[in-house]
Amino acid sequence: MTYLLIVLAILIVSYVQSQNLPSCTYVDYDGRYYDFSGLINGTYGYTHDTLFGETYYFNICAEDTVCDTSMNIVGSSACMLNGGGEFSWINLGDYTSMELGQLPNADVTGQMGATLNYTTLNYFSTLLCSDDSQYIYTSIQMFCNPGQPTTISSALFIQNDCHVIIEITSNDACPYQNTSTTSSDDKPFECVFLDNSVAVLAPNKTIECKGSGTTICNSVDAYTQRIYMSTSDTSLTFFAPDEVQCMGSNVLCNYESMYCGFINGTEVTNY
Ligand SMILES: *[C@@H]1O[C@H](CO)[C@@H](O)[C@H](O)[C@H]1NC(C)=O
Ligand SMILES: *[C@@H]1O[C@H](CO)[C@@H](O)[C@H](O)[C@H]1NC(C)=O
Ligand SMILES: *[C@@H]1O[C@H](CO)[C@@H](O)[C@H](O)[C@H]1NC(C)=O
Ligand SMILES: *[C@@H]1O[C@H](CO)[C@@H](O)[C@H](O)[C@H]1NC(C)=O
Ligand SMILES: *[C@@H]1O[C@H](CO)[C@@H](O)[C@H](O)[C@H]1NC(C)=O
Description:
Shape: elongated
Number of helices: 3
Number of domains: 2
Bound molecules: 2-acetamido-2-deoxy-beta-D-glucopyranose
Largest sheet: 8 strands, antiparallel
């Protein structure tokens, strides 16, 4: 009954316009959302040397100046210098091809993070990729590692299928959280909408979320990074301290009389 009353009350309040998903943000299948812009290293990007004498250059969600200037092109986000090989510089990915997606097996492992894909044309055909692939595919797998600095763990060119896989671990690849940074003059209740997901902040308060239809809510313990998640195809009630992220067309989160969420997929806020 309470829920019905809230829904009725909400019908009178303002409907917030949908906003586009900003670049370098991502909502995973569990409704956790990420802002990877902390991993953008200016236009300089990252450098990684392998034991095979290759050097990889890449940036996250941005062009890499080393690639652009070394190959005298614009728009490259990843490239490699093949020390002893017959091609010196190879473009591995165009900035405009950028796509974010799930980490491999994340649905099974629950690993937090995302994959950033770039593609570019393979101008070297079978000289570079034995399958004569038309494209080079570069996947940068960004693994959440709470509290840890950004580390490039590996970079590998798999010539059989023209794939490059780069793995990085970082605190900046962890789901979006504000609880650890909130100061005393922060608002008691705040909502951030991203795509079909909403993050609700209420420092030191218990947030209650109710959803009908397919709904996913989760909260991440700011200190242990443990995930508390609940999903339902019919109806869901979820309580979380400090911060919660929910995804669904009909989900509302509130603390006392302040609330936000979605009604029929439309963003609503009242606080
Ligand atoms: C980030 O870019 C700076 C140059 O602006 C460079 O010196 C530094 O090594 C880069 N950081 C990493 C982790 O590669
Ligand atoms: C990224 O590339 C990998 C490997 O090719 C692929 O499995 C995955 O579906 C791609 N993800 C996106 C979002 O394009
Ligand atoms: C969360 O923190 C980020 C970065 O500090 C800031 O841009 C954003 O506005 C904050 N969101 C809320 C709801 O406090
Ligand atoms: C939350 O509670 C802790 C411990 O009582 C306190 O240190 C902190 O300032 C509180 N934060 C806010 C935003 O009220
Ligand atoms: C949601 O959409 C359905 C179907 O379009 C409509 O019947 C219903 O009235 C809508 N509910 C609200 C609260 O807008």
